[in-house]
Design brief:
Largest sheet: 2 strands, antiparallel
Strand content: under 5%
CATH class: Mainly Alpha
CATH superfamily: dinb family like domain
Organism: Actinorhabdospora filicis
Structural class: mainly alpha
Number of strands: 2
Distance between the termini: 27 Å
Protein name: TIGR03086 family protein
CATH topology: Four Helix Bundle (Hemerythrin (Met), subunit A)
Order of helices and strands: HHHHEEHHH
Shape: globular
Length: 183
């Protein structure tokens, strides 16, 4: 999670002023929707879930992308989330996710998945370089959750990749993303 968060922070710092209506790797989202999802789930929710705190409409209905200080707020909550998950016992027990209880370690795993995949989405949509070196470690995380995400329409169908494709690109493809996508 720490390495994924460091990469996400670098992408957030590099995102310039962007066309919020521009396309993204997710055909269902424009850049505004993607940024809002990314900020919510990979910073605020990252922190709130680790602290076992609920979050509601004040966050889920917020248009972060339209706020001038969204990057700084993202970085602040991203850092707070990583620190919260690093506390002793943070991975123990269950977390109420609003739809039921889930093992804290599984919640952390899923939030790391969200962090890596949506950071890639944001980087691709905004023209920022993103090539983390942890694809080999990340691929098993996507393999673990792919069926569940697909069941809830969080992932599309697997994208075919040629032999010799990097582990990160295989993880992206397994999540329904085209590793070759370009704006």
């Amino acid at each position: 999670m720490k390495r994924a968060a460091a990469e996400a922070a670098a992408v957030a710092r590099a995102v310039g002023d962007v066309d919020l209506d521009a396309p993204t790797p997710s055909a269902d989202w424009d850049t505004r929707a993607l940024l809002n999802h990314w900020v919510l789930w990979t910073s605020h929710a990252l922190e709130k879930r680790a602290l076992r705190e609920p979050f509601g409409e004040e966050l889920t209905g917020r248009d972060f992308a339209s706020e001038p200080g969204w990057r700084q707020e993202y970085l602040k909550h991203l850092d707070a989330g990583v620190r919260a998950w690093s506390r002793p016992g943070a991975l123990d027990g269950d977390i109420d996710t609003g739809g039921g209880a889930m093992a804290a370690a599984d919640v952390a795993s899923m939030l790391t998945l969200e962090l890596v995949l949506h950071t890639w989405d944001v980087a691709k949509a905004t023209g920022v370089d993103y090539d983390p070196d942890f694809g080999t470690e990340f691929l098993p995380v996507v393999e673990k959750w792919a069926d569940m995400y697909r069941q809830y329409e969080g992932f599309g169908d697997t994208v075919e990749t040629p032999e010799g494709t990097s582990a990160l690109d295989r993880a992206l493809a397994l999540s329904g993303r085209d590793p070759k996508w370009a704006a």
